[in-house]
# Entry
Amino acid sequence: MIVILGIESSCDDTSAAVLRDGVVLSNVIASQKVHEAYGGVVPELASRAHQQNIIPVVHEAIRQAGIEIKDINAIAFTRGPGLLGSLLVGTSFAKGFAIANKLPMIEVNHLQAHILANFIKEPGKESRHPSFPFLTLLVSGGNSQLIIVHDYLDMEMIGQTIDDAAGEAFDKCAKVMGLPYPGGPVIDRLAKDGNPERFSFNKPQISGLDYSFSGLKTSFLYFLRDELKKNPDFIQENLNDLCASLQKTVIDILMDKLKKAAKQTGIKQIAIGGGVSANSALQKAVHEEAARCGWEVYIPRLGYSVDNAGMVAVTGYYKYLSGQFIGLDTVPFARTTLD
Ligand code: KG4
# Structure
């Protein structure tokens, strides 16, 4: 039996999880509310909050799992990419825990963890996992990538954003409309009562499989600025249509490259992950395309698609099986790719 304690602290969620043989026993997430007032994550505040949350969160994960510290075989932690100050809290905690309890440490790449979230098993539930190779669209507040997954620990990035991530586009445009942070889920909700064809915004013309979202953000900003000059109540009067049209543009951009990647690689097993994978219009678009093209679609349950330690622990589990441990001299990294 292999028990892994996973730690995630790459951005603004402090999370700890316990997995036994790939089955999640607990997955505790403490989201930081402190950033709401600023309309985005403030790095220094994030690391301070991690510092306060990490011990109670780990304590709770161990309690909920019904295990004791002596049952743990290894500690897996997110080493990067992410905010350095945030990552330092999780990494330092993992080192202290490893030394105190004489445990091996496993470093986890946050992107890889989002992908392997598809392999988390839940107790007493039928699990459905993609088979290799599969294609992943990873979309969150910090990532927009297309990845071929050849095996648990063998992944190939074939496209990525050259500027903003899709979640960032949602959040920044939401901020311009005066909506609370994070804006993605709010736009999703408001878009349900809006007309997605009402307004149109610039779509990037980027060759290959890369994404770009900064142009959309600028186009949205200028459009609102011009309309507000004519009518100061433009946003309030058109909020649902604005959200629906913006959301449609983001989803069209994401789907366009996903379809292209599926066609180029011939892969029909499609997984989506990251916070934006919760978007109802994205899920609908992926399922519609699946029905048209015979894709098999995999989306982790909400608690495992956002930043969480369950995905870190499951990655740690596969690394444990292949003997990939790391020494105490390890340091976090803010930026990286999968390659
Ligand atoms: O993976 P995640 O929890 O963590 C970070 O990358 O920090 O993703 C958060 C992102 C935010 O940008 C948020 O606005 C977006 O995911 N998001 C959504 C939805 N739920 C979360 N975007 C659009 N529609 C949603 N339903």
About this structure: The chain has a mean pLDDT of 95. The beta strands are 3-8, 13-20, 23-31, 74-80, 105-109, 134-139, 144-151, 154-160, 269-273, 296-298. Residues 127 and 275 are 21 Å apart (CA to CA). The pocket of KG4 is lined by residues 11, 140-142, 167, 170-171, 182-185, 188, 274-276, 278-279, 306-307 (CB under 6 Å).
